[in-house]
Amino acid sequence: MTSAAQRWAFIALFALAAPIGAPAADVPFLTGRVVDNAEILKPATRDALIATLKAHEQATGNQIAVLTVQTINGDAIEEYATKVFENWKLGQKGKDNGVLVIVVPKDRKMRIEVGYGLEGTLPDAVASRIIRNVMTPQFKTGDYDKGVTDGVNAIIAQLEGKGDASAAADEPSSSSSSSSPMHFNEPDLGWPERILLGAFIFGIIGLFTFIGIMTPGVGWFLYVFLIPFWAMFPIMIVGVRGALILLGIYVVGYPIAKLMLARTAWYQKAAQDLKTKGTASVGGFVMSSGGSSGSSSSSDSGFSGGGGSSGGGGSSGSW
């Protein structure tokens, strides 16, 4: 065997021996409103779901389908749901009023994929609560029949304007209410929304906090003035527990940082300049003795914030 033939033989053997990655999960055929390929639902449950979904479609035109598959071979549940949704073409043309509920028991994943036309009626926050409060507790106990049925009923209740059926699970139970008189929900925001909103909120109150720490005299007024802002605004980004932690850091850290800076030479000079000249340069800002800020040597173009919209919409979860 020539050297060239030996090289090609080695390449062929290496290709055969190389591990083959798991194939992408296939999209099953749309055989009905409930496609239970994972076989986790009882026949009676499937029949009841089909009747419920059919009645809802006849009343509203919205098309809801349920799909269960054992595994999606490591694919992202969001990408797989979009692929199924586009392949099945759920909802009426031009209205995009379809909803897909996917449950993957082996991967312990699920998703509610919402058509673009129903995102206003069934927003991501509500879909997330349905997954977290209605479906997940049942799936954790292995009761797929009740989890899927309750989840579908909650979706229909939301679409038909009968109230947010997922909100009831957010209320404290009788056992927990006896030990805790108050109950707070965590913010239902995706990470892109949290980052944008956080940049806006923390940018503003962070800037005033910086000015307060760096400025002699008026800084103590800002310390007290900013406490309500640090107490309330972070709740929208990091939830109640996170807001309490940030408030504690602010209440303790602000005076410590200010007292430490008060010992530095430039801070003492700035305080003296405010008394003698009426103005002082602090961190690039020109401060007057009246506590107002003038021009800055380096200005920022401003802060912007907003939320994005998902063409598919919906929410994912695991248990």
What do these coordinates show?
- The chain has ten helices and eight strands.
- With 319 residues, the protein is of the alpha/beta class.
- The strands form two sheets. It has a five-stranded mixed beta sheet, with helices on both faces. The protein has a three-stranded antiparallel beta sheet with strand order 5-6-7.
- The model is unreliable at 12-20, 171-184 and 289-311 (pLDDT under 50).
Record the SSE blueprint.
Elements: H1 3-17, E1 34-36, H2 43-60, E2 63-68, H3 77-88, E3 98-104, E4 109-114, H4 124-140, H5 144-159, H6 174-179, H7 191-214, H8 219-232, H9 235-261, H10 265-276, E5 279-282, E6 285-288, E7 293-296, E8 314-318
Parallel strand pairs: 1-2, 2-3
Antiparallel strand pairs: 3-4, 4-8, 5-6, 6-7
Helix pairs in contact: 2-5, 4-5, 7-8, 7-9, 8-9
Protein traits:
10 helices, 319 residues, alpha/beta, five-stranded mixed sheet
Task: Round the Cα radius of gyration to an integer and report it.
Answer: 29 Å
Overall pLDDT confidence: 75
Number of helices: 10
Q: Strand sequence of the main sheet, in spatial order?
A: 1-2-3-4-8
User: In one word, what is the shape?
Assistant: elongated
Tell me what portion of residues adopts beta-strand conformation: 5-15%
The biggest beta sheet is recorded as: 5 strands, mixed
Low-pLDDT stretches: 12-20, 171-184, 289-311
Helix content: 40-55%
Overall strand count = 8
Order of helices and strands: HEHEHEEHHHHHHHEEEE
Structural class: alpha/beta
Cα separation of the termini: 58 Å
